[in-house]
Amino acid sequence: MLAGMFYRKRFSDLTEQQVLALAISAEEDDARIYRDFAERLRADFPSSAAVYDGMAAEEDEHRARLIELHQTRFGEQIPLIRREHVAGFYSRRPVWLVEKLGLEEMREEAAQMERSAREFYLRAAKETQDAETRKLLGFLAAAEGAHIQAAEALGREHLSEDAKQQEDDEAHRQFVLTYVQPGLAGLMDGSVSTLAPIFAAAFATGDTWNTFLVGLAASIGAGISMGFTEAASDDGQISGRGSPVTRGVVTGVMTTLGGLGHALPYLIPHFWTATVLALVLVFVELWAIAWIQNKYMDTPFWRATLQIVVGGALVLAAGMLIGSA
Q1: What pLDDT is attached to residue 238?
Q2: Which of 101, 147, 208, 245 is most solvent-facing, going by the fewest CB within 10 Å?
């Protein structure tokens, strides 16, 4: 990595031919990114895939014009210069490393790609003192501006408001199925199922440290169990709920956090201070679960409150009664 830094050349030290070659390679990279976006979206979001197909075609056209300009001025041989060879040149996020890049993230990434390229060329054009180089950089900035306009035109052509709304709804549905639903199930299980053992241990022993250890064990055990259950129950192929590993991790983590929320106060050595704080946190947890159900699962708030708060209160009361027996 350090060795590569010493072989980078400053943009201000590039010749006009090298700047043109750099622009050609950048256009090729952008076209490949847009085609990758299109392939990722084609099955579920065909309208957006068509937009990125069109943007890739626009990048190919601009690259062809740049190559023609290079042939006219400098000949057929184009130097091999890429972004990583030039210090200060705008970079592209390695989107191919991101397994699940959402629809909105792709739109934002594409918009940023066009803006960063255009702004860079405009700044470079202002800094150069050579008239021919300034003209060349101005041409590149105009080309990137044309990309933005082309993207807007393609969006109007292929992505109507109804199609965009439909795709946004599908993306939201996928987010709920892959993250919200498993996370909510884990949070509910972790928060409710650990109430009885934690408060039973608290009132049976009156020892805050041992109560914390019971809560820690119950939370981690429940998290591992729920995580494996979620991952093994559905591979996501038929249900469309997404990666089982992702859902398993989300469920396991949220289950553990749900239990630890009211176990951590027992790190406080004073029994009643820890217990009162734990009860407050239980109340907050249960109301948060009801709010999430109402917001993301469209469950009426009164029904979510009845199911979670009342159910949690019954489990809590059972734990207290058993511990006090």
Answers
A1: 53
A2: 245
| Signed CA dihedral, 44, 45, 47, 49: sign only | negative
Q: Say which residues have a Cβ less than 8 Å from residue 44's Cβ, sequence separation at least 6.
A: 167, 170, 174
Range in 16-20, 70-74, 319-323 the model is least confident about: 319-323
pLDDT digits (tens, 9 = 90+) for 131-171: 776 777 787 788 777 766 666 665 565 556 666 666 667 67
Residues 6+ apart with CB under 8 A from 62: 27, 143, 146, 147
Contacts of 85 (CB under 8 A, 6+ apart): 7, 8, 9, 22
3-state SS string over the chain? CHHHHHCCEEHHHCCHHHHHHHHHHHHHHHHHHHHHHHHHHCCCCHHHHHHHHHHHHHHHHHHHHHHHHHHHHHCCCCCCCCHHHEECCCCCCCHHHCCCCCHHHHHHHHHHHHHHHHHHHHHHHHHCCCHHHHHHHHHHHHHHHHHHHHHHHHHHHHCCHHHHHHHHHHHHHHHHHHHHHHHHHHHHHHHHHCHHHHHHHHHHHCCHHHHHHHHHHHHHHHHHHHHHHHHHHCCCCCCCCCCHHHHHHHHHHHHHHHHHCCCHHHHCCCHHHHHHHHHHHHHHHHHHHHHHHHHHCCCCHHHHHHHHHHHHHHHHHHHHHHHHC
**Would you say 288 and 168 are in contact if contact means Cβ atoms under 8 Å apart?**
no
| Alpha carbon separation from 312 to 49, 71, 315 (Å, rounded) | 46, 74, 5
Instruction: Give the pLDDT confidence of 231-275 residue by residue, as tens digits.
Output: 887 666 655 677 788 888 888 999 899 888 888 999 999 999 998
Residue 322 CA: distances (Å) to CA of 219, 251, 316: 19, 29, 10
Q: Domains along the chain?
A: 2-159 (1.20.1260.10), 167-324 (no CATH)
pTM: 0.52
